[in-house]
Amino acid sequence: MVAQCIKQYIGRGVVFASTAVFALTVYGQVSIAPIEVPSDINMAQAELGKKLFFDPRLSKSGFISCNSCHNLSMGGSDNLPTSIGHDWQQGPINSPTVLNASYNLAQFWDGRAKDLKEQAGGPIANPKEMAFSHAAAVKTLQTIPGYVAEFEAVFGDNRIDIDRLTSAIAEFEKTLVTPNSAFDKFLKGDKAALSAEQQAGYKLFTNSGCTACHNGPALGGTMYQKMGLIKPYKTDNPAQGRFDVTKNEADRMFFKVPTLRNVAMTYPYFHDGAVYDLGEAVKIMGELQLGRSFSAKEQAQIVAFLNSLTGEQPNFDLPILPPSAAHTPPPQPFKP
Amino acid sequence: MVAQCIKQYIGRGVVFASTAVFALTVYGQVSIAPIEVPSDINMAQAELGKKLFFDPRLSKSGFISCNSCHNLSMGGSDNLPTSIGHDWQQGPINSPTVLNASYNLAQFWDGRAKDLKEQAGGPIANPKEMAFSHAAAVKTLQTIPGYVAEFEAVFGDNRIDIDRLTSAIAEFEKTLVTPNSAFDKFLKGDKAALSAEQQAGYKLFTNSGCTACHNGPALGGTMYQKMGLIKPYKTDNPAQGRFDVTKNEADRMFFKVPTLRNVAMTYPYFHDGAVYDLGEAVKIMGELQLGRSFSAKEQAQIVAFLNSLTGEQPNFDLPILPPSAAHTPPPQPFKP
User: How many CB pairs under 8 A join A and B?
Assistant: First the structure.
């Protein structure tokens, strides 16, 4: 197994994966598990968070919302190589899907946010993304009567601050799981849920070592791994993964392993969004991460399996946002 | 009546409004009517149109959808003075609400599109908006298996062209009516639906001549009128309304009268989006269009009435878009 001797982060610790990898690669082991709908959601908070997720007034321009780059109509991503930010700035990295993000050991490709709540605050204040500030976003919400009332109903008093704002968004994001994919039905015992080709692809996926990294209920998100493990990954994108956070040479090009759930919807692939074709992405992963050239037939089998990972997409009414008041600070779309 | 001798367009003809205005300004006349839910919708076509309305793949960037500037979470508008287009270009005019737009005699502020279908094709091909072409949008959709199947189910065969594309969007937009506002309940006989202040505001609204222009079920959209009828409207915005279409001097600064339905949600106001405060907008309209200075009390009464025009907002599940295929032309967000 090529991945056995590779240093891997699992959770927040560092382990050598030699034994774990063997367990993972046995066909149908429990480390690959169905997506489950969480039962511990504060629904009032999540409803508030849903509005905030869709609200472009959290950006300086009044035009960009969380949903702009994590579009829940499109697999929780923007389907662009890298995102578009304030003043049409080109973002540095591919927007990861928000779907099933609660399964991630940390957030962002480099794991610089420890959880959904910390992540939610990032883009608001990032000058290349929503280009606002936490103070300005909070001040805006404080002037909107509908939000003041809803924060009071949810939190017990009408204080609006960045902690509550990001807590509500995170609570909503916890609901964004995609259960009942064909693969989940298969895992739960319905062997007819996957075609013969998909089952062959699943077997190949596990036996080839893909599950060394793509494991857990989300088939990803459980560890960091080097992009270009066997052969270097060629890209113009300057991101260096965990290294950008830790400045530790050993972390160079270690990125959070992305979830493969709904991967048929979350193109283009890799941290630089360089590849639109899922088959091509499989081929590259085989070569760079596993040192293996999948045949055309094998590649098609794995793609067929990956297509079985599309689950039930978030199903909710489009939120209606509470209108601003006359004294709400107006957005500043054309001030860079 | 100041508006009596003003040439007005009603429907596609031209009439002098002297007698009509008197009828309209009588308190509670039938020309002000409730919003009704249309019964003649092709629901399959509207469902397809809903997806298309939310699909940013109709833009060159893959980032801008109809919903970007006619955001159904925000009163069918973007709540910006003028819109943001491809490459963050500043749009020339305030984005009119799509809500109840089926009641408009024509589309756009200058009426250059005769109906919703014709309007829907405009922004797709406008280099300052979605910056795509009809051919490119159609070609993109033709590669998306989910759309091919849905066009076939809706239209009887799988041909995708701009005519069907815009027909489906228009059919969806016909569903975007906002019935059952407090004002509609009042019109239908529930006199308690409006407060005393709102009823006073409604009376003032009709007796002051506002209904000379803001009439019909949408309280607007039935005619063109000069912006700055009594006193000139001062703006840096170069738009000249109907004149830009007809090149007829008599049409200079004649704009389509905007609907007042959901006006509390569709700030900022006027074709240049210059005013965020509804009270201020009422004051300016009184002075410029009616030659009348409303007192603070009168202004508050009219605003209270206008707040009663917020109806039930569109209520539907966020659409999930069919994913692109490997051979779908990739979006080009950073090519201006």
Answer: 108
